[in-house]
Design a protein that fits this description.
The structure holds two protein chains of two kinds.
Chain A (H helix, E strand, L loop, with lengths): L11 H20 L4 H8 L3 H7 L4 H36 L8 H16 L2 H12 L3 H25 L3 H9 L4 H35 L8 H9 L3 H29 L1
Chain B lengths: L7 H24 L4 H18 L6 H36 L7 H15 L2 H12 L3 H25 L4 H8 L4 H35 L7 H10 L3 H31 L6
Helix pairs in contact in B: 2-10, 3-4, 3-6, 3-8, 3-10, 4-6, 5-6, 6-8, 7-8, 8-10, 9-10
Classes of the chains: A mainly alpha, B mainly alpha.
């Protein structure tokens, strides 16, 4: 007879959490009116969408989307550059390693958190109201979007830098600003570049849908065709966007490999 | 003082990158017809909008409209995550190249890549004519997008497991099924569960947005109030969304921490 060690008891989290998660799932499916027979009935009208979706009108998309697509890319370029440029100093203030004042650290950190909670499309909606419909609102929305992501990523990187160079700079009598500038900044610059490229990718993806609320870019064309259910025109646009996104992703992965 | 000189090729690299960035932003700004005075004017106009939101609309009627919508977003995000994790779990085993060999893993990975490439909003309006205006459409969109992302993340977790336990099971005569249930799943489950929760946090933000195309959730409410220029109520919608997202983030982050780092032992 082998002595099998006793199985560890399930923790409270598992005992209470798992049934709760299960109940909550059932409750959620109820609340969203999920009904399987209705769903199957609905699936029978799928032809309205699938038929045009798989008969794309390439010529139309070619003729009409190129300028909007360029606009999308320009929005993403400008927004990621401005957003990351603003985030660079902010994240030094939002890191415990470089901001010694606890109160201002807390303020900057919560500001970044607050910006991060608001989804990009909400920013776009608000900016279209504030500065008018058009690509400028989209740029501002994506500036907030990239500011939030870069702020979080970079301030966490700064938190974990090697304190040695900073101590060395302090020992030579450098002021706090000089210390940060000469010993903290060079340590995180490679990460900053890598994050910038990553955020640029995210911005390209995000700027595609900004047009749905009138913030410029190729989404504007998608929105007008969507209202008329012209899925035969939308599907080539989606394919073109996917191709562009994948191309830019490959490019940025290539650059990141060169830099890091 | 003799400072070492910066190598010339590094200098050229630095300047060319800087000028490339400046040129790219100038080109973009020119193409989008963004002038300096618009940029300078923007903070003032944003200030006017934010000013118009205060004081917030805290009336009973506003809350009775907004709160159900906010919770609808929560339900959409949770149900979408459940769909995503339910289907991505078996698929991720197919995609992991140490569990299935060769072509199956590669093909599954490509399928996941394609699913992942479609943003939730685009999926949502493709489903819209089929399943109708309402939360079900949003749930399907979020669920399908989550299958793509979760499948990729989980398969990477499975690829990174320690092979030791598998060998131990094999050497004691365990079957392939035993390897799966006693070797792989106990190792990957904590990380995969924490990815599910993490995905839930992302999905919550996504589901808040989906209302823009009419797929349920709080986004519909926000866009309506902004269109009717009812800024105090739009402000209330925003604050409610922020509170929901922050609370859900905090709870989910705490659970994730507990799952990954284990119980806090007081010493």
């Amino acid at each position: 007879m082998i002595n099998i060690p006793p199985k560890p008891k399930a923790s409270y989290l598992a005992k209470i959490g798992l049934p709760f998660a299960f109940m909550f799932s059932i409750f959620s499916f109820n609340m969203i009116d999920f009904n399987f027979s209705d769903f199957q009935n609905n699936l029978q009208n799928r032809k309205i969408v699938t038929e045009p979706l798989f008969n794309p009108k390439w010529q139309w998309a070619w003729d009409n989307t190129s300028s909007a697509l360029l606009e999308t890319i320009q929005i993403a370029i400008l927004a990621s550059i401005i957003g990351c440029a603003i985030a660079l100093p902010l994240s030094f203030y939002a890191s415990r390693a470089t901001n010694l004042n606890k109160f201002s650290y807390f303020l900057y950190k919560s500001f970044l958190n607050l910006v991060r909670t608001i989804p990009d499309l909400f920013w776009a909606m608000m900016f279209t109201v504030a500065v008018g419909i058009g690509p400028f609102a989209g740029v501002l929305a994506l500036v907030m979007f990239s500011l939030a992501i870069m702020g979080k990523l970079l301030s966490e990187t700064i938190d974990s830098i090697d304190p040695g160079p900073m101590e060395a700079a302090k020992a030579t009598g450098a002021s706090h600003n000089q210390t940060v500038f000469t010993s903290a900044l060079p340590q995180v610059l490679p990460n900053f570049t890598a994050y910038f490229l990553y955020i640029f990718e995210l911005c390209i993806r995000a700027s595609v849908i900004l047009g749905l609320v009138g913030a410029g870019g190729v989404g504007r064309i998608i929105e007008t065709q969507r209202i008329f259910l012209r899925f035969d025109r939308i599907s080539p646009i989606i394919v073109i966007i996917l191709a562009v996104v994948i191309l830019i992703e490959q490019f940025s992965v290539w650059i990141r490999k060169k830099i890091l | 003082m003799n400072l070492p000189k910066q190598p010339l090729n590094q200098k050229i690299f630095k300047y060319s990158i800087t000028s490339l960035i400046i040129l790219a932003s100038l080109w973009s700004a020119a193409g989008l017809e963004i002038t300096l005075d618009r940029i300078i004017d923007a903070p003032k106009q944003i200030g006017i909008l934010v000013g118009a939101m205060f004081p917030l609309d805290l009336s009973q009627e506003a809350f009775s409209r907004i709160i159900p919508k906010v919770f609808e977003s929560l339900f959409i995000a949770w149900a979408g995550t459940v769909i995503g994790s339910f289907y991505s779990f078996p698929i991720s085993f197919l995609a992991a190249n140490n569990f299935t060999k060769g072509i199956v893993s590669k093909a599954t990975k490509q399928i996941l890549n394609i699913i992942r490439a479609f943003p939730e909003l685009i999926l949502a309006f493709i489903f819209l004519p089929i399943t109708g205006l309402g939360p079900l459409t949003g749930t399907l969109a979020i669920g399908i997008h989550s299958i793509g992302t979760l499948g990729k993340l989980s398969s990477e977790v499975i690829e990174g497991i320690d092979e030791g336990p598998l060998e131990a099971i094999k050497s004691s005569g365990g079957s392939k099924i035993n390897e799966l249930t006693f070797g792989i799943i106990p190792q990957v489950m904590p990380t995969i569960t924490s990815y599910w929760l993490y995905r839930f946090e992302i999905n919550l933000r996504a589901s808040a947005v989906l209302g823009v195309v009419g797929a349920g959730g709080v986004g519909q409410e926000l866009i309506n109030q902004l269109r009717f220029r009812d800024f105090p109520r739009a402000g209330t919608v925003l604050i409610c969304t922020i509170v929901l997202v922050l609370t859900a983030d905090a709870v989910s982050a705490a659970i994730r921490n507990r799952i990954i780092k284990g119980k806090l032992v007081k010493s």
